[in-house]
Amino acid sequence: MNDASVLRIYLARPMLDNARAGEVNILNRITAAFSARGYRTEFVQDSEAERLRALGRRGYALYHMHEPLTANTLCLRLSYLYPFWRIEDTNDRWDWDIAKATFDPETVDAGLANTFFDRRRHMLFKATLRSIRTSFSWPCRDACCSTAAFSR
Q1: Looking at residue 102, what DSSP letter applies?
Q2: N or C: the chain end with fewer CB closer than 10 Å?
Q3: What is the mean pLDDT of the chain?
């Protein structure tokens, strides 16, 4: 395998240690996808010196939350909310295509949105929900899923 058939993923600790232990799902998936195409993946300690070294390296690079420096480099970062990730050609979220897209509430499936909302609420407030289920309302739920809320 030549040096061009490598993907180097630059990570800070503790994410680097977790990735090397196979505990970061998105990185496991990326590694599997590249491996299936004959590439090897290396997890590299992120530092300014290592990112500068990448300028002279063959192959591909993925920086976690740092601006890509070459044509063969992309940025990986959370898409605001775990477990959703983005791989982009810039670290600047405001320059992502999705950030510039016009939101059309008519394209949102209300059933899927409600399911997502309920699961997210359960994940974030699992213990709290048991104690407030009968005494607290979630006014934002209807606002989030209502077309009228976005047309004002």
Answers
A1: P
A2: C
A3: 84
How far is residue 53 from each of residues 56, 58, 100, 116, 123, measured CA to CA in Å? 6, 10, 33, 42, 41
Is residue 151's pLDDT more than 50?
A: no
Buried b (16+ CB within 10 A) or exposed e, 14-53: ebbeebeeeebeebeebbeebeeeebebebbebeeeebee
Whether residue 14 has a cis bond before it, omega within 30° of 0: yes
- Token pair, residue 83, equals 């477990």
* Residue ranges with strand state E in the chain: 6-11, 40-45, 60-64, 73-78, 85-88
Tell me the per-residue pLDDT of 64-75, one tens digit each, with 9 for 90 and over: 999 998 999 999
